[in-house]
Amino acid sequence: GLFGMYTLFLEHCKSQICKILDIFTNESHYPVHLFCNAGKDRTGVITALVLSILGVPPDRIVEDYNLSENEGVKKGAQRDAMESNLQKAGLTEDFMNAPKAAMAQTLWYITKKYGSVDNYLDTIGFGLSKRKIVQSILLEKDGTGI
């Protein structure tokens, strides 16, 4: 399911994830536009990592991810094409959804395997100094959100 796909992404795309996160360390790259085929899988995982860097609690990250459940690709030609591609790949329509459990399990996985999101980020080469740069760009001077 989605959780398995997300953990595979986290484990097998570490250098790519680090390269994407590096974009957030350069203020000249802003605004940053993240997207993928459905706008919730790779985009959702990267967004979860960025929100974690900013100190957003896991329950809020899960809620944010779940917004894609209702705000994602609506019925119509685009969704039909995506569903057709999923079927060709042997996947069900469930992969079009963004259930809270998928992101909650993903964050749990990172914490269980690495101890924290920060430790995972250290492992992939996105260390504290880079995280502080992202925080300095995206957080107000008092440490609150943008």
Protein topology:
Elements: H1 2-12, H2 14-23, H3 42-53, H4 58-71, H5 77-88, H6 100-114, H7 117-124, H8 128-138
Helix pairs in contact: 1-6, 3-4, 4-6, 6-7
Overview features:
about 150 residues, mainly alpha, 8 helices, about 65% helix
Number of helices: 8
| CA distance, first residue to last residue | 33 Å
Helix content: 55-70%
Largest sheet: none
* Unreliably modeled segments: none
Structural class: mainly alpha
Choose one word for the global shape: globular
Query: Rg from C-alpha positions?
Result: 16 Å
The chain-level mean pLDDT equals 86
Strand content: under 5%
Give me the count of strands. 0
Compressed to H and E, one letter per element, the order equals HHHHHHHH
